[in-house]
Amino acid sequence: MKILSKTAFSQISFLIQGVNYKNIYALLNQNLSSNDIRLFSKIEQRNNETFWYIDSDLKNYKNFRDATPEERGEIADFIEEQSVRIGKKIAALKEIAAYEQQIFNVPSEDQIFFTYDSNNNLMVTLAQWGCSNISQGNGINLYSGLLNVPRSDKINATLLIKYADNTPAANETFYFSFENSHPTADSSGSPIKTNAEGLKSLGKLKKGISFTISNRLDKSDCNRMITVSEQTLYELFFPYYTSYDVLVVNQFGEPIADKEIYANGQIYLTDNNGHFNVPKIEYFLDTYINLSAKQGSDESASFLLQKNAEENDFKFELTIDYECSLNIKTLLKNGEVVPNYKLQIEKKGENAQYSTDENGELSFKDLTPNEEFTIVDWENPENKEMVTIQRGNNCCDLIVELLKEKQVRIKLLDLEGKPMKGITMNIKTKSGIFTKTTDLDGYIHLPFSNFNDKEKVKVDFSIVEE
User: In whole angstroms, how far apart are CA 248 and each of 80, 242, 243, 290, 391?
Assistant: First the structure.
């Protein structure tokens, strides 16, 4: 708390009778903005004294009498502007509307205090507001503009800020700073905000003074410097920045990660999800984003940049050459490989005969994704498999069943017609002599290939005595 002024009850006359001043301050505090209420100090009554104070850590408040002529003019302008504007708000409050004139009375200039904040903004606070000094008459009525001090040559200055496409910079924050700022000013500038038409009033500024408007706090982007002259409206143009995002996909609509893409000559690398983002790009009408996989590539795309970043989500499709192959194996049901097995392959409307190698395998390379293959068992055409080629190595196991070779059976019976088992027999054919022993059912089996068609064979057998 900083006490600005104090006085005994006997030295002060309260111009508003029958109303508690704390209640008046509370009502002002409820209806005025935080900046407006700073014009009135708080009030505290203790015993036979009244105190006017502020809740602030600013220790450099000065009295109006200690102000330089230029500061006095600035303070007078500030109070004149504030009192008129705030007076209209007070007049709209039925509880204290009748006291509008009295509220803006102070006993003397000694009750006007001022300072500058860190952004070089003038702050004025009134002590003993709504009061007069018994020994000095009714005091000063600020609302009537009785601060009769020389005013500097000032003029109302208003900014009209637009973007490069000639649209207003509506409801945007910019930064204001004087070139020859007050010693306590922060070099980063004070934030100012435009209205819906891109306008911002700066109030009264001294002719010949220069100030800078920046669209970035650090002023590293671009500044606009203005020197106050006779004109009241200053039109400024700033670049408008938007952003865009690109999703890079292959011909199957799948994101392509870690892919270098040229965008208007700059190289960007996609992330794990196939995206890259350009967070800041100056917007102009009819601005196009030209994308390509590499400089001079036939694979390219152009997108019209929109002012609204949410509309700048672009998809760039690339055709990628993927290695595709098909490996066919012929197997028995038990997994045993069947080598040198004949197959019929149907693809792209054509049929051709192939044979697996000694490992039961048949391979095709340099295929096209989504190409269809039909693998047909040559010996059993009803046995077939269909394969749609995907990227990478495709595999197909065709389970086949080997046809059993025709056999010649010879059955040995005794005189009673019963099978004779375990009897060794010699069979003589044109292909040679074969020695076999009958099985439990009295049979021996020989491959048909060991005989000629309609050949007569000689069979000798011997019985081994037990």
Answer: 62, 20, 17, 13, 18
Helix spans in 34-99 (H): 34-37, 69-91
- Going by C-alpha positions, the residue among 297, 304, 305, 301 that lies closest to residue 317 is 301
Asked if residues 276 and 286 have their Cβ atoms less than 8 Å apart, the reply is no
- In angstroms, what is the C-alpha Rg of the chain? 51
DSSP string, 161-202: EEETTS-B-TT-EEEEEETT--TT--TT-EEEE--TTSEEEE
Tokens linked to 240: 């408008």
Report residue 107 as tokens: 């006993």
- Alpha-carbon torsion angle 310, 312, 313, 315, nearest 10: 170
CA-CA-CA-CA torsion for 261, 266, 272, 273, nearest 10 degrees? -70
Measured in residues, the chain has a length of: 466
First-to-last CA distance in the chain? 133
Q: pLDDT tens per residue, the chain (466 residues)?
A: 788 999 888 888 888 877 788 888 999 999 999 889 999 999 888 888 889 988 876 568 899 989 988 888 888 888 888 888 898 999 999 888 888 888 888 888 889 999 988 777 889 999 999 888 887 666 677 766 556 677 667 788 899 999 988 889 999 998 888 764 433 334 456 788 999 999 998 887 878 888 888 887 765 567 888 999 888 999 999 988 899 999 999 988 999 999 999 999 899 999 999 999 999 898 988 899 999 987 656 789 999 999 999 999 999 999 887 888 999 999 999 999 999 999 999 988 888 999 999 999 999 998 888 899 999 998 888 899 999 998 889 999 999 988 666 777 888 888 888 998 888 888 887 777 888 888 878 888 877 777 777 777 777 766 654 4
Contact 58, 115 (CB under 8 A): yes
Pair 301, 262: CB distance under 8 Å? no
Q: How far apart are CA 267 and CA 282, in angstroms?
A: 17
Long-range contacts formed by 213-217: CB under 8 A, 24+ apart: 213/159, 213/161, 213/174, 213/175, 213/176, 214/174, 214/175, 214/177, 214/189, 215/172, 215/174, 215/175, 215/239, 216/175, 217/175, 217/188, 217/189
The DSSP-derived string for 99-158 is: GHHHHTEESSGGGEEEEE-TT--EEEEESSTTEEEGGGTT-EEGGGT----PPP-EEEEE
Place of tokens 């407006």: 36
**Cα–chain-centroid distance for residue 93?**
48
Query: Phi, psi (5° rounding) for residue 316?
Result: -115, 115
Report the C-alpha gap between 231 and 159 in whole angstroms. Answer: 11
Pairing, β 350-355 against β 342-347? antiparallel
Q: Which tokens hold the place of 153?
A: 């040559």
